[in-house]
């Protein structure tokens, strides 16, 4: 079970976060982590903590913004949401990811 | 790109909101963990398991925080700030050390910045408001077979202007002046005769009116127009906005004011602030009526060229030389052997740049040495501290600080010192920027203008020099510290031995270098003081006692030649009739004045001139009794009398070297000499004297009667035992009796006139004296530092010696001899360096050998005394060592 888990590639974490925020709307860090885990059906191994430097990086670039708010359980939490620039970035990255994986697939199949 | 900027801004902002963001991060991570725990509890885990699982899934909290912080701020900058804060704390903790170090460096950097600013303001960027100074070169004439440079004639100038294609503009200029009367006193103001393209070519636009128009520089006295300086406009015309079209009398002729130069423009002559400019067509009006615009043999222009962009000075020189060659073949009578040479502005031969160049070079060397000495001191101080802080450093290393981090910390402290010192140094430089002119006396009653220029280039260079030197000297302790061996450093610190080898060699050699550099400076100062004394007691070949001199400008007062001759004759009669006056005589020039002698090509009957050469000699136009008045002895023949006038035969008196060179030992009296194509009979031979300054070598020179070569702007020399003050009022009375509209210029003794010529030596003495003293003080501080450190590090040895029966005097001798050995080494090294370098002062030395034993000897004595003083306190402290405490330690 453990060995079939995959390490998250550097850089793909950004894509995952952006996509999550895109489909789920504003979320806090724990929520994002839980969602990634759930969607990947526990196959992605992610140290949840590494999410935070990534969130900061995205925020510094202006792709997401954060705001303190209150969670469903009445807990103070920082909510992240996608900006217009972030949406554009997501589209670009998703497209390049598709292209990349298609190329890699083709290479793997043909040899 | 925009994204990068945004990231950077946020990161920088984060550095300054450190505390707030840190709280934010804590809160966010805590809320994450709590949510995770809550979820786990809901899944049915025990409280402890829920917590452990949450932490496991999260990863190491502290590592994440660290990664987050690195992402958030600027880690490099944050550690730098940390170092800086720590550095400040260290400096504050030892205020004595910090003050001393900063003071040493401030003096060193300040002296350098001041000299840089002089070099910038006088040599490199001498002309404020003039554009493209980097493409400006000075133009001067050369004469084959003669050294030095000459001027350029107007026809040659026009031909060069027409023929050279690589040059944007030829700018002709000649310094001149006029006398403006202010009440009873006549005041000389400097101005300039320029070609019509002048203001356009240098890119200076008058704030009112215009510059000169093409064609205004041709014709004889055809365009009496002038552009006046901003200063003159403000002071003489009270800033009159309707000044254009008004007239100002210059040299007796009304000139229409057509423009006012912008504020801060002083013309293009190093040393003077020009007050007016006239076009070249007015040349004769300012040159005692001699019209030179059509005379190819009359060389009077000191000009500039502005190169076209991209043209090198070599290319321009090649083209100009080719044109000059052609002129030589086209006009052999006037141009044989004549060339044209370009000079960079800082070597300009005709203004004060060339004269100050060697002095500024010496100044640069001196302040460089002072900076080095100051840096060596700081280096030494840092070293001492790095040893004193060895314990601290060792502990830091032991608990895991990287060596790189320690080195960076020490360098930060060094940089902090140098930044403080650089700021202080710039303040010092700001005070000193105009100090140079204080050492140069006014000439002909006109104050000189020699400003320093503290522009960004000077600031950057000074800061760079300061930083570099501190880095260099901060690096030594840093490197030495990084060699600490952990075990050894924790051992006792006072087990050294006086004079032990080991790391102290670095400090000792620094002191050695300091001592030798100070020695060189002291020797230089000694040599210059001796030559100044030599000059003061030297005999220039004319009387310096009992002769007064002044100048009377009848040309400006509007006299024609005949009236001026009458006036001069009558005035001499009246002055000679005054009680106490032995004799009086006019002359166009007086020795050692700032003006130039006339110079002319000569031919001597019976003397074969080598082909391709044109002998020239300088001469003075003098009145009857001039040689007697000046106290210049006659060797044979007679001097001029009243009867050597316009109607009489042309005569001349030659000096000894001239007689020796052209008549080869025969008595030239009765022989003939041709000057500017006119034959003159030699009637006397005068003993050689100094003509311009003391350093000149004997050269051919002759005198002609003022009457036969008239100038209405002439000096009046009076031989009298009376004081200057008494004579001055009598003279003014006699002049006013003849014409109340004429006033004499400043009346001074010949002694004073001679003294004024020694300004370079005095600048040298001031520079070397002040900085030599400073260097010695710094070096003594360095020696003191080394010795007191050595004593403090060897208390155990000293205590042991005492316990074994050494007396206080033995210990005193031990420490003193060690200090003196350092000094002795410094003196030996310095003597070697001085023997090699003092000949650079050759141009300033009068009758003193650069290896003068007296200068070397007295410098050694001064060094010894200073180092005795520096070593005494540490040595005395050594004798106070308490053997019991020293040994128990």
Say what the CATH topology of chain A is. Arc Repressor Mutant, subunit A
Number of helices of chain B: 28
Mean pLDDT across all amino acids of chain B: 84
Strand-residue fraction of chain B? 15-25%
Number of strands of chain B: 24
Strand order of the largest sheet of chain A: 2-5-4
Distance between the termini of chain A: 29 Å
SSE order of chain A in H/E notation?
A: EHEHEHEEH
Q: How does the helix and strand content of chain A classify structurally? A: alpha+beta
Task: Please state the average pLDDT score of chain A.
Answer: 83
Low-confidence stretches of chain A: none
Poorly predicted runs of chain B are 489-495
Tell me what portion of residues of chain A adopts beta-strand conformation.
Answer: 15-25%
What coarse outline of chain A follows from CA principal-axis ratios?
Answer: globular
Question: What is the count of distinct domains of chain B?
Answer: 4
* Main pleated-sheet profile of chain A: 3 strands, antiparallel
**What would you say the CATH architecture of chain A is?**
Orthogonal Bundle
Report the C-alpha radius of gyration of chain B, rounded: 37 Å
Q: For this structure, what is the CATH homologous superfamily of chain A?
A: Winged helix-like DNA-binding domain superfamily/Winged helix DNA-binding domain
Q: Supply Rg of chain A.
A: 15 Å
SSE blueprint:
The complex is a heterodimer of chains A (111) and B (889).
Chain A: E1 6-7, H1 12-24, E2 27-28, H2 29-39, E3 44-45, H3 51-61, E4 64-70, E5 76-82, H4 84-110
Parallel strand pairs in A: 1-3
Antiparallel strand pairs in A: 2-5, 4-5
Helix pairs in contact in A: 1-4
Chain B: H1 2-16, H2 18-42, H3 47-58, H4 61-72, H5 75-93, H6 95-124, E1 136-143, E2 152-153, H7 154-163, E3 167-171, E4 173-182, E5 185-194, H8 198-202, E6 208-209, E7 225-228, H9 230-237, E8 247-250, E9 253-260, E10 276-279, H10 283-286, E11 299-301, E12 303-307, H11 313-330, H12 332-335, E13 338-344, H13 352-388, H14 390-398, H15 403-432, H16 456-482, H17 486-489, H18 504-537, E14 547-553, H19 561-577, E15 583-587, E16 598-604, E17 616-622, H20 626-630, E18 634-637, E19 651-655, H21 656-663, E20 672-675, E21 678-686, E22 701-705, E23 713-719, H22 724-738, E24 748-749, H23 750-756, H24 759-793, H25 795-803, H26 808-837, H27 853-879, H28 883-888
Parallel strand pairs in B: 5-10, 7-9, 17-22, 19-21
Antiparallel strand pairs in B: 1-12, 1-13, 2-11, 3-12, 4-5, 6-9, 7-10, 8-9, 14-23, 14-24, 15-23, 16-17, 16-20, 18-21, 19-22, 20-21
Helix pairs in contact in B: 2-3, 5-15, 6-13, 6-15, 6-16, 7-11, 13-16, 13-18, 13-24, 15-16, 18-24, 18-26, 18-27, 19-22, 24-27, 26-27
């Amino acid at each position: 079970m453990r060995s079939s888990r995959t390490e998250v590639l550097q850089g793909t974490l950004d894509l995952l976060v952006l996509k999550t925020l895109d489909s789920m709307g504003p979320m806090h860090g724990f929520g994002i982590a839980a969602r990634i885990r759930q969607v990947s059906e526990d196959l992605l191994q992610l140290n949840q903590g590494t999410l935070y430097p990534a969130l900061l990086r995205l925020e510094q670039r202006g792709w997401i913004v954060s705001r303190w708010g209150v969670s469903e359980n009445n807990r103070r939490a920082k909510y992240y949401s996608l900006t217009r620039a972030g949406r554009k970035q997501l589209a670009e990255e998703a497209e390049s990811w598709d292209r990349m994986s298609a190329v890699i697939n083709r290479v793997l199949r043909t040899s | 790109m925009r994204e990068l900027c945004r990231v950077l801004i946020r990161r920088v902002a984060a550095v300054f909101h450190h505390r707030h963001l840190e709280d934010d991060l804590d809160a966010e991570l805590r809320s994450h963990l709590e949510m995770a725990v809550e979820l786990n509890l809901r899944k049915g885990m025990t409280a402890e398991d829920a917590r452990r699982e949450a932490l496991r899934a999260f990863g190491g909290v502290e590592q994440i925080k660290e990664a987050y912080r690195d992402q958030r701020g600027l880690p490099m900058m944050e550690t730098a700030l940390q170092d800086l804060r720590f550095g400040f704390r260290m400096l504050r903790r030892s205020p004595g050390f910090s003050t001393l170090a900063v003071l040493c460096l401030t003096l060193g950097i300040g002296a350098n910045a001041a000299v840089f600013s002089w070099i910038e303001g006088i040599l490199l960027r001498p002309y404020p408001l003039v554009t493209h100074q980097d493409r400006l070169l000075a133009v001067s004439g050369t004469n084959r077979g003669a050294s030095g440079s000459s001027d350029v004639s107007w026809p040659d100038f026009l031909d060069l202007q027409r023929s050279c294609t690589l040059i944007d503009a030829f700018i002709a200029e000649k310094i001149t002046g006029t006398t403006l009367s202010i009440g009873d006193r006549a005041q000389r103001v400097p101005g300039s005769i320029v070609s019509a393209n002048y203001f356009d070519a240098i890119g200076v636009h008058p704030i009112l009116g215009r510059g000169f128009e093409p064609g205004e520089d041709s014709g004889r006295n055809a365009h009496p127009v002038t552009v006046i300086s901003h200063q003159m406009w403000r002071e003489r015309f009270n800033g009159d906005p309707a000044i254009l079209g008004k007239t100002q009398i210059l040299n007796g002729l009304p000139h229409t004011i057509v423009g006012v130069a912008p504020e801060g423009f002083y013309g293009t002559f190093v040393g003077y602030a020009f007050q007016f400019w006239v076009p070249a067509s007015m040349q004769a009006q300012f040159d005692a009526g001699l019209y030179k615009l059509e005379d190819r043999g009359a060389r009077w222009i000191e000009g500039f060229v502005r190169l076209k962009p991209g043209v090198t000075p070599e290319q321009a020189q090649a083209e100009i030389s080719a044109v000059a060659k052609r002129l030589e073949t086209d006009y052999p009578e006037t141009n044989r052997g004549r060339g044209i040479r370009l000079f960079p502005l800082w070597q300009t031969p005709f203004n004060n740049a060339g004269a100050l160049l060697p002095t500024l070079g010496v100044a640069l060397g001196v302040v460089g040495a002072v900076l080095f000495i100051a840096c060596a001191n700081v280096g030494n101080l840092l070293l001492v501290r790095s040893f004193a802080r060895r314990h601290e450093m060792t502990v830091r290393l032991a608990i895991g600080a990287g060596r790189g981090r320690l080195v960076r910390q020490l360098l930060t402290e060094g940089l902090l010192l140098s930044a403080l010192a650089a700021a202080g140094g710039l303040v010092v430089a700001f005070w000193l920027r105009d100090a140079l002119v204080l050492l140069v006396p006014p000439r002909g009653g006109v104050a000189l203008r020699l400003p320093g220029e503290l522009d960004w280039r000077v600031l950057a260079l000074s800061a760079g020099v300061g930083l570099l030197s501190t880095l260099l000297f901060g690096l030594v302790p840093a490197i030495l510290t990084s060699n600490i061996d952990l075990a050894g450093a924790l051992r006792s610190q006072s087990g050294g031995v006086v004079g032990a080898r080991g790391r102290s060699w670095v400090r000792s050699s620094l002191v050695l270098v300091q001592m030798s550099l100070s020695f060189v400076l002291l020797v230089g100062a000694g040599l210059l003081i001796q030559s100044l004394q030599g000059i003061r007691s030297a005999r220039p070949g004319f009387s310096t006692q009992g002769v007064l001199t002044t100048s009377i400008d009848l040309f400006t007062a509007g006299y024609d030649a005949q009236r001026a001759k009458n006036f001069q004759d009558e005035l001499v009669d009246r002055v000679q009739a005054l009680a106490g006056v032995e004799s009086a005589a006019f002359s166009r020039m007086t020795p050692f004045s700032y003006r130039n002698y006339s110079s002319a090509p000569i031919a001597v009957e019976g003397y074969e001139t080598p082909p391709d050469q044109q002998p020239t000699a300088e001469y003075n136009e003098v009145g009857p009794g001039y040689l007697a008045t000046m106290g210049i002895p006659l060797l044979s023949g007679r001097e001029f009398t009243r009867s050597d006038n316009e109607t009489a035969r042309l005569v001349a008196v030659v000096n000894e070297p001239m007689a020796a060179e052209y008549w080869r030992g025969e008595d030239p009296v009765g022989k003939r000499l041709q000057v500017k194509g006119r034959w003159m009979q030699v009637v006397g031979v005068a003993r050689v004297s100094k003509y311009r300054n003391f350093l000149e070598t004997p050269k051919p020179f002759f005198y002609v009667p003022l009457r036969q070569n008239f100038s209405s702007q002439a000096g009046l020399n009076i031989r009298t035992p009376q004081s200057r003050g008494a004579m001055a009022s009598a003279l003014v009375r006699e002049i006013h009796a003849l014409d109340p509209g004429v006033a004499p210029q400043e009346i001074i003794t010949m002694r004073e006139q001679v003294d004024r010529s020694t300004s370079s030596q005095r600048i040298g003495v001031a520079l070397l004296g002040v900085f030599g003293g400073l260097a010695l003080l710094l070096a003594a501080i360095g020696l003191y530092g080394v010795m007191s450190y050595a004593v403090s590090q060897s208390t155990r040895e000293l205590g042991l010696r005492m316990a074994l029966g050494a007396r206080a005097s033995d210990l005193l001798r031990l420490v003193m001899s060690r200090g003196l050995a350092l000094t002795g080494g410094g003196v030996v090294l310095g003597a070697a360096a001085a023997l090699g370098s003092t000949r650079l002062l050759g141009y300033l030395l009068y009758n003193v050998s650069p290896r003068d034993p007296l200068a070397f000897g007295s410098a050694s004595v001064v060094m010894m005394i200073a180092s005795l003083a520096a070593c005494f306190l540490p040595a005395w402290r050594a004798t106070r060592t308490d053997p019991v405490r020293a040994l128990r330690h």
